[in-house]
Records
---
Amino acid sequence: MEPPKVYSVQNLLKAPLSFDEKLLVKKGGRPIPDLQISSTSASKTRTYRRVFNRNIYEKYEWMCGCSVTNKLFCFMCLIFKEEVSAWNTKGLDDLKHMAERAKKHENSVSHMNACMDFSLLGKGNIREQLGSAYLRDKIKHNENVEKNRHILRRLIMCIKFCGAFELALRRLDETLTSDNPGIYVGLVNFASELDAVLAANMEGSQVFKGASKTIKNELLDAMLHVYKQEVLKEIQSANFIALEADETTDTSNPQQMVVIIRYVLNGQICERFWSFFKPGGHNADVVANTLLNELETILNLNYPASHNNTSVNKNKLIAQTYDGASVMSGKINGVQAIIKRTFLHAHYIHSYAHQFNLIIERAAQCNKNVKVFFANLQSFSRFFSRTPKRTAIVDEIVQHAPTRGNFKSRTVNALFEHQHSFREWLDKIIDEDGTDSVTISEASGLLNHLNCPDFLYWLKIFHFIMPHAEILFNHIEIRGIESAQMQAAVEEFQEQIMLIRKAIVNINHERINEEPTMKRQKLTAGEDRADIAREVCDTILSQIVDRFDFKDHLSAAKLFDSKKFKTYRRSFPQRHFDETVKSYPMLDSVKLKSELSALYARDNMCDVSGLLPFLVFITDNDLKKVMTETYKLLDIICTTPMPTTECERCPSTLKRIKTFLNNVTISEDRLNALAVLSIEKKFVQSIPDFDNKVIEVFSRLNNRRMDFMYKK
């Protein structure tokens, strides 16, 4: 819902306004820009310089400003020009005598009349307001509004209940006479049996059917609007934010993108679901533009400079993290690079919420053959995890924990090392008496994969790659890892992948010699596959290097390792400090070093363990004004998603989103609103007066055929 338009002084100085125009101007409010006004005066002993201070707008609620002429005006007198004066014609910029001139204007009859006209604008005739018939009508109207709002509250409760438990709100047949109308309609019917007012509406109303799809969707839209407004308030109060985006699928498998905003508020790390999106394409420019448009809304970058300091808001985004398509991570032309051109401090980092095996898989999907391989690989996981009997078969073959569907490396290793056993079991399932046709079809398809030269070739390639990926990610997820250790782990991974890349020719020849002659003739000595395999290795290397290119947030975290404070007293951690202030230039390095030195010198600080406890300690003990830079740095680190769970004090919202998508389809009406009610139900419950706020938004929608707004 767009905010009302604020009319400029230049618009108000033109021809007299019509009644409708005056209403729009009143709704938009007075223009209060920052003005470039200054004056200099001298006394016998010194010179005084006065400059414009926007607090004057708070002192004089009738005052407004013009950014074109850099002068102050009376907002009410501009609308109702009863008497011509400087306040409604040319404006004033004399700061020295401003208080005196303002007081004189406030006491003028013309100004008082303009203020009364402004207050009564749009409120009807005064005589009507004082008449007894009008008062009776007003009381009756408000009683009817209260009844209608009571019905809305019951409908909102039903929707919130369905959303919290991820219950489907809609069925194909939602008529009241349907035998299976859906959970929402059924819940409304049940509520009407307990509520006489709702029951009367369900039976008698011809213009407002509470169970209708239109009403339900409009209430969902209103709920989403209220939720986003509350999140925006929190973001405005937060000092920094991080952007998390991911490719997700639901039960019907269409691709979409989810955006999460992370920030610290009142000593707590918050990860808030923002929205699902379906970008118009899959290239970096399209995805980046989608994210930039949302960031404009989130950070109020589309408002005039008079309302927000845009440069400050652009510095507010200090981290971005993505999973999914390779277009995300490119250091030069990827999404992260495009975002960073606008938000200079938005460092691209890896988050523990992003699974390494999925990162490797998606990075490798630069080629059609590899995409087909991973799709076929997924079918093995689905088939053998569908029933306990099939899971037991995997246990028997592999001799360790069953292969989980989302751990591709385990699937790759199990299939590669036990190909013969899997073939035997699939043959046995096909030949077994009583096996249904669907199972036979699926088993024969898997058997064909295990006899397919292309599938076996990529199985061998990734059998070599995946173990090194697991080793790298196990190193990365060690608690308290330093940037140097992370760099060493990445370099070791690079070396191993380069060795595999060099050995691809030998792997290729081995596969060609194992294949039947007829199938060998379809390939040009396996050279095509070798080229693709080398391209896959190059892409994986590029993705990993880009993902772990920025590591200075780990150095910043090491500055607060309380176990090393005694060591830091003797030898200040200069390397970690230098890396930190280089990456976060908004910090005052001199003051930060002094604050950290004072922190290290105190014995009681050695007992504080963890970044968030340090942040809470400073807040609870009113040290934010003393330890300004330390608090700012802790805020930055806690806002930045970390590669381990050590710094996390809130459940991963991304994991909750993926759980939610397992129970819904993307084609579901109002998916964003349903996600809010499920994923953010605790936050929704904490919003003061949530139901009434939803009703206010719902009531302001056009074409309302029932009364929901009180007369005052």
---
Amino acid sequence: MRAVKLIITLLSLASASASSTRCCFAMRDAANGRAIQQDSESGLVFVQSSMPDAGRYCLDEKSVLWDAGNNACIIDSAFRFQCLDPTPGFGRWRLRRGANGRTLLTVDGSARFKACPAGEADIAISGALKDDAPGCRALHLVASDLDGTCREYGS
């Protein structure tokens, strides 16, 4: 019984330490306030899909963005926003205060993303460099419910 209590205490301390060294938040589409969704198999990130809400994301001290499953997020070679495995990419993710006071997610200094049709009813998130295809629109991602090291941005 003492061993179980010790393990629970250690896990609680590790969890508290991780959130205090990371900036964690929920993400929403700035245009309509919709929560971001993520496909658990492909890791692709959407603003409109049948997938459940993605939950929380965290930035670490090396500007790596992590999803709730501890997968590193990247803009892949096809310019898709994807969080598939624990291997960080080369992009530098950060938060920045927008002109309207909202906290925006940026990658490599840009807060611009694109929302483009993907399949019959899904709308996937891509990096800003993706070619303009029919149905694509500009997208900003707002960080909310901030905790950990990003409390300076407010919520």
